[in-house]
Design a protein that fits this description.
Layout (H helix, E strand, L loop, with lengths): L11 H8 L5 H8 L1 H8 L4 E5 L5 H8 L3 E6 L2 H10 L4 E4 L13 E7 L8 H14 E12 L11 E2 L14 E6 L8 E4 L3 H10 L3 E6 L20 E7 L18
Helix pairs in contact: 1-5, 6-7
The structure holds S-adenosylmethionine (SAM).
Length: 258
């Protein structure tokens, strides 16, 4: 496991490049279905954007009508977010320290690509436990993560052909990918996490998995899709507090033993 994994976004040049991204190519698929999923699952209007980066996902949530707080551990990313969007609420969050966020306060928590950069199962579990703590009763966490397949194929917005070693990677290992929509072509380093590994994380964090969605590109969309129409690059998880499980009771109010 990569305990010493360094967040590539703690970097001025990367922040500068990232701030110019909106929703090109493969990224379009990460956001295309979010409005419908959010309408279907979320009531209320307060949102936390966990790992807001340069603010793209915050601005997206605000356009959907959410009062949004964006938090991130990378100061260079937040600087860009604030200069692009001076009205926005962007806060630096020391790694793993959610103390300044009140419990049970957000109807929606979005984490768009953030968990790709959180090393180790343990840290992912801790972060999801904290997100569960700040989630309002009945609220929903929407986590957009890279599918394992993104690191093995070519895409409108990404290339992995220089990294054949990605094929041997297991959950918890570092994988590399090049972003094609920005000038900065240094490889991005992420942590691989398979679908079953995420399910284990959710279980350990005490969250119910409500829906899993894997968006595919459609031939009529205005992008030169490469693998996107047949392989999903992203996985979107909708999560919530555990539903109360009814324990059968005897007429006298004692719990029945099976
Ligand atoms: C790929 S960027 C995505 C930014 C934004 N969500 C978007 O869609 O444009 C991932 C962000 O997650 C942040 N991040 C990584 N680990 C984090 C953590 N433990 N807590 C908060 N943010 C984190 C990184 O600093 C980076 O800005």
């Amino acid at each position: 496991m990569s305990e010493d994994f360094a967040n590539v976004y703690q970097d001025q040049a990367r922040a500068e490049a990232y701030s110019k991204l909106e929703f090109p190519g493969t990224y379009f698929l990460a956001f295309r279905d979010l409005p419908e999923l959010i309408t279907q699952h979320v009531c209320g209007s307060s949102a936390l954007d966990f790992g807001c980066g340069t603010g793209r996902s915050c601005r997206f949530l605000r356009q959907l009508g959410f009062e949004t707080v964006g938090v991130d551990i990378a100061a260079p990313m937040l600087e860009r977010a604030r200069s692009l969007d001076p009205q926005g609420d962007y806060r630096l969050l020391p790694d793993g320290d959610f103390a300044e966020l009140a419990g049970r306060s957000f109807d929606l928590v979005l984490a768009a690509f953030t968990f790709d950069n959180i090393a180790t199962m343990e840290r992912k579990v801790q972060a999801f436990q904290e997100l569960r703590r700040v989630l309002a009763p009945g609220g929903r966490i929407v986590a957009v993560v890279s599918a394992a397949e993104i690191y093995l194929n070519e895409w409108a917005s990404f290339s992995t052909q220089d990294f054949p070693e990605n094929r041997q990677a297991k959950s918890g290992d570092t994988v590399r990918i090049i972003m094609l929509d920005v000038e900065d072509r240094r490889p991005v380093e992420d942590i691989l996490c398979s679908g079953p590994a995420y399910q284990e994380v959710f279980e350990r964090a005490g969250l119910d998995l409500i829906q899993t969605h894997q968006p595919l590109g459609r031939p009529d969309e205005p992008f030169d899709w490469v693998s996107e129409t047949s392989i999903a690059p992203w996985t979107i998880y909708v999560l919530g507090h555990p539903s109360r499980r009814l324990v059968p009771r005897s007429p006298a109010g004692k719990t029945l033993k099976s």
